[in-house]
Structure formats: structure tokens, C-alpha cells
Design goal:
Blueprint lengths: L1 H35 L1 H27 L2 E10 L1 H17 L6 E2 L1 H11 L5 E6 L5 E5 L9 H12 L1 H7 L8 E10 L2 E10 L1 E10 L4 H18 L1 H18 L14 H56 L6 H32 L7 E5 H18 L2 E6 L5 E5 H18 L4 E10 L2 E9 L5 H4 L24 H11 L3 E7 L2 E11 L1
Parallel strand pairs: 2-5, 9-11
Antiparallel strand pairs: 1-7, 3-4, 3-6, 5-6, 8-10, 10-14, 11-12, 12-14, 13-14
Helix pairs in contact: 1-2, 2-7, 3-4, 8-9, 9-10, 10-14, 11-12, 12-14
């Protein structure tokens, strides 16, 4: 009993594997294509609904249609077919091929072997219809070949013989023929037999019920609504989401379901909302930056300008004791005015860089040689500020840069080390080849800088010192921001890291051969 159950289970598994596996594969592929292509999904849904409607119509029309009986004429063509087959078999036994000739004696022998019974007749004619040989009751000396051919055609056509040719007749003659060679001449052998005709009453549906049509239409509509309900609901959700976003809620996101065209619409709407939100935030940041720029410039200009005006006022009012004191006032005013000049020049250059008003004049140079020469020029400054330059430069690497602009970037790196390094310390300068890039690093020991402040070093007017009046804060506050714009104009990157008590600035440029 267990073996029998195991055998049945094995047969069932094999059935599922051989029959259900292809069906599951087709269903899986169809579902995947429906998820990707809305037009394919509509075609499939339409076909399923049409199938349901068609099945419903056939069932309901069978029940509600106009049922009638009719008489069908059935003709037995076995006799004529057997005659032709029997003659051709006997004929082939007397001849070597179909073009061989037979005579009257051969025909007699063939007919005797055929064992013809009933009113079955055979006639051999030439192509003009003249009877050359006959067996049975054939009174005419000539046969109308054209007429016989048409009767033979109807004999071979089941529809004609059963529906039209024998309509309203109980008996009719069946005709068939074969081509032979008789007395060394081409000839035609005709077979004649009386048809056995019977009439049969059959049941049929004579028309289409309008009630069945209505039921089929209702089934089609209901199944279509059912199968497309989820897609229509999704379209409604997209419409609601689009209306919500249009009302100003740019944080709203539409659920992205599937991979078809409708889902792509939802994705594009979400992307549009994100882009609008990004641009609005960018505009708000630009507005804030503009306000901060005005505030910061006013602040940075006010202090040196106040000093200049103060010392010039003292000189104007002759509030000095001697010429040496007056010269001291003039020198202080001049230094403060130079600071104002530097600030205005940096501000002007930053504005041009921010608005893409700068055209680079690039040339191919050896970056190692370029930086080495620059280091040599700054050696006295480094020594004066207790900075020991450590170079890690051992390979010629060529880049395509605007020398004047990049000179400003490297000088800014040197200036930052001079101003903000924890002295005395090493100032490490390295150039490293990395695939199609070159990495230029500047590192020096520094006071601890939190990660959030490291990320803001390249912001305009940002200083690590909390007080803008710090002694170290002698620059314009635009140096690193200007450097970032220049590097980005060269399709490069610049960033900073704080590792093991060292501040490291990294510049990445594109290398050329």
C-alpha cells in the first residue's frame, strides 16, 4: 500500500514538473512583462476579459438561445472509393508503371478481380469522350467528360455532397475517375456507383440571444474593472500626490510601485519635487549667503576703516607730539588700508569665480617642479616661522593648469600653515600619483578641529576661531573658498582632514601624459 502511494506521489511530482513548470514559467514571464510595460498589461487584461466574456456568452447562449432541429443528408462514399482503389491495385499488377498500356482482355481480368456487385459500372473513354470499353449498364456510346468531371468533384467534396448536391434526393450517382493507357493510347476510366443516402435530424442553435450578449458585456466590464482596479487606484494616488506637491508640500513623495510607465511617471514626479525643493533651498542659501556676505564684509571693513579714520583724524587735528608719532600714525593707517585693499580684492575675485567669470589659461607643466620652485621661494618665510619643510616628491607628474590661479591656491596653503600651525613643527608637502589623478597634500600640526568645523573650512568668511577678532584671524576669510573654486574650475577636488593632531589639505587634479 505504501509503495502504491509513493508511486502515485512520484507520478504527481513528475506531472507537476513536466506540465506545471512550463505553465509557471509562462505566467512568471507574462507577469514580469506586465510589470514593465503598461501596454502589454492592457493587452493581456483585455484578452483575459474577452476570454471570460466569450465563455460566458457560449454558456448563456446555449441556455437562452433559439434551439431548433434540422435534417442533414449524409452520403456514404465508401462504394465509389473502394471501386477506384480496387481498380488501381489490379491495374498496377498488370503494368510496370502508370504509363504502361493494357487491352480489353486485361480489363476483363481486372474487373473480374474487383468483384463488383450491385449497380456499379466502369467505362473507359478517350479524351473526346468516346467509349472504348464498358462494364455494366452504360447505353451511351459517348460520355460528357466535362459533366463527369464536375460530378466527380462534388463526389470528393464532403460539404457539397452532403449539403447541396444531394439536397432533397434520396439517391444519386457518384462518379470518380483515373488516368490510364488503353491500347497504347491515353484514356480515362470512369467509375459509377449509386450513392447510399440517409437523412439525419440534428439539434442546433439557430441564433444569438441578446440576453446572452448583455451578460457577456457585463462580465467583460466587471472583469476589466476588477483586473485594472489596482492600476486605477495607483493613478488616483499619483493624481492626489501631484496635487499635494502643487499645493506646496515638496516633502511629499508618491509610492513608486513596479517598473512600468505609470511607475516612471511617479518617479519623475518625485524627482521633480526633489529638484524643486533643492533649488528652493539653494535659493534660500544664496539669499542667506548674500545677507551674510554683506554682514561679514561690513564687519571686516568696519574695524580697519575705523582705525584708518581714527589715525587720520588724529593727524588732521594735529594730536601728535612730534613728527615721529605722526609717521607712526600714518604707517598704522597705511597698514589698515592695505588690509582693506586685500579684502576688497579677495571679495572681487571670489565674486568672479562664483559667477564663472574667470577664463582659465591652461598649460602643461610638471607639478613637482612647479611646487618645488614655490617652496624654495618660501623657505625664508618657513624658517622665520619655525616650520621645517618635509618634502615627499620623487616623480615627474604633468598636469594641465592655469599657473597663476593654481599659484594662488598653493600660496594660500603655505599662508595657512604659517598662520595657524602649532609651531615649531614639520610642514609636510607630498605629491602622489594615483591612477589618472595626482594628489597634492599639505600637512602640519594644529590644534584640535572638530569634524563639523573641518567640513566648513571652505565656506565664505568661515574661521575656526569663534571670535572674528582673533589675533590669528588676519586674512580675509575668503582664501580657502577661493581655492576651492579654482580647483573645481580645473575639474579637481579639494578637502581637509584632521588625523593624529595634524590638519591635512588634499588637492586632487587630473593627470596628463
Amino acid at each position: 500500500m505504501k509503495n502504491k502511494i509513493a508511486q502515485q506521489s512520484l507520478v504527481k511530482r513528475l506531472w507537476n514538473k513536466r506540465i506545471m513548470a512550463p505553465i509557471r514559467l509562462v505566467v512568471k514571464m507574462t507577469k514580469r512583462n506586465m510589470d514593465k510595460n503598461i501596454r502589454f498589461a492592457i493587452i493581456v487584461v483585455f484578452g483575459i476579459c474577452l476570454f471570460f466574456a466569450g465563455v460566458t456568452f457560449m454558456i448563456s447562449n446555449t441556455i437562452f438561445g433559439h434551439n431548433q432541429y434540422r435534417t442533414v443528408t449524409i452520403v456514404d462514399r465508401t462504394a465509389i472509393a473502394n471501386m477506384k482503389k480496387s481498380f488501381e491495385n489490379s491495374y498496377s499488377s498488370y503494368t510496370k508503371n502508370k504509363f504502361s498500356s493494357i487491352k480489353s482482355n486485361d480489363m476483363n481480368s481486372i474487373i473480374m478481380n474487383m468483384d463488383l456487385v450491385g449497380n456499379r459500372r466502369i467505362a473507359v473513354t478517350d479524351f473526346d469522350g468516346n467509349v472504348l470499353y464498358k462494364y455494366g449498364n452504360i447505353p451511351e456510346p459517348q460520355i460528357d467528360i466535362s459533366k463527369m468531371m464536375k460530378i466527380s468533384e462534388k463526389t470528393c467534396d464532403e460539404d457539397k455532397i452532403s449539403r447541396r448536391y444531394f439536397a432533397n434526393f434520396s439517391k444519386e450517382e457518384l462518379v470518380s475517375f483515373s488516368n490510364i493507357k488503353f491500347n497504347n493510347q491515353p484514356a480515362i476510366v470512369f467509375y459509377f456507383a449509386d450513392a447510399e443516402v440517409t437523412n439525419k435530424d440534428e439539434y442546433y442553435n439557430s441564433g444569438i440571444s441578446m440576453f446572452s450578449v448583455m451578460i457577456a458585456v457585463i462580465v467583460f466590464a466587471m472583469s476589466f474593472l476588477k483586473l485594472t482596479r489596482d492600476k486605477m487606484k495607483y493613478l488616483n494616488d499619483i493624481s492626489i500626490g501631484l496635487s499635494t506637491i502643487a499645493d506646496g508640500n515638496l516633502n511629499y513623495r508618491i509610492n513608486e510601485l513596479g517598473n512600468d510607465e505609470i511607475s516612471k511617471i511617479a518617479k519623475n514626479i518625485n524627482n521633480m519635487a526633489r529638484e524643486i525643493e533643492r533649488r528652493m533651498q539653494q535659493e534660500r542659501r544664496a539669499e542667506k549667503t548674500k545677507n551674510d556676505l554683506i554682514t561679514n564684509v561690513s564687519h571686516d571693513l568696519r574695524t580697519p576703516l575705523t582705525s584708518v579714520m581714527g589715525y587720520l583724524g588724529l593727524i588732521k587735528e594735529r594730536k601728535y607730539t612730534d613728527m615721529n608719532q605722526m609717521e607712526e600714525y600714518i604707517n598704522i593707517a597705511f597698514v589698515k588700508s592695505q588690509k582693506i585693499k586685500v579684502l576688497m580684492e579677495d571679495l572681487f575675485e571670489y565674486t568672479k569665480l562664483s559667477n564663472n567669470m574667470i577664463t582659465l589659461k591652461k598649460q602643461k607643466i610638471d607639478i613637482n617642479e612647479f611646487i618645488s620652485q614655490l617652496i624654495e621661494e618660501y623657505i625664508p618665510v618657513f624658517e622665520e616661522n619655525n616650520l621645517n619643510v618635509v618634502r615627499n616628491i620623487d616623480k615627474n607628474i604633468f598636469v594641465n593648469i592655469d599657473v597663476d590661479k593654481m599659484l594662488r591656491v598653493f600660496e594660500n596653503m603655505f599662508s595657512n600653515a604659517v598662520k595657524y600651525a602649532s609651531k615649531p613643527c614639520d610642514f609636510e608637502i607630498g605629491i602622489r600619483d594615483k591612477d589618472k589623478k595626482v594628489l597634492i597634500t599639505f600637512a602640519n600640526r594644529s590644534e584640535f578641529i572638530p569634524k563639523e568645523k573641518i567640513d566648513r573650512l571652505f565656506d565664505r568668511f568661515y574661521r575656526v576661531d569663534d571670535s572674528r577678532n582673533s589675533v590669528k584671524a588676519t586674512g580675509s576669510g575668503l582664501g580657502l573658498a577661493i581655492s576651492k573654486h579654482i580647483v573645481e574650475l580645473h575639474k579637481g577636488k579639494i578637502w581637509a582632514e584632521y588625523i593624529n593632531d595634524k590638519i591635512i589639505f588634499i588637492i586632487e587634479l587630473n593627470k596628463i601624459k
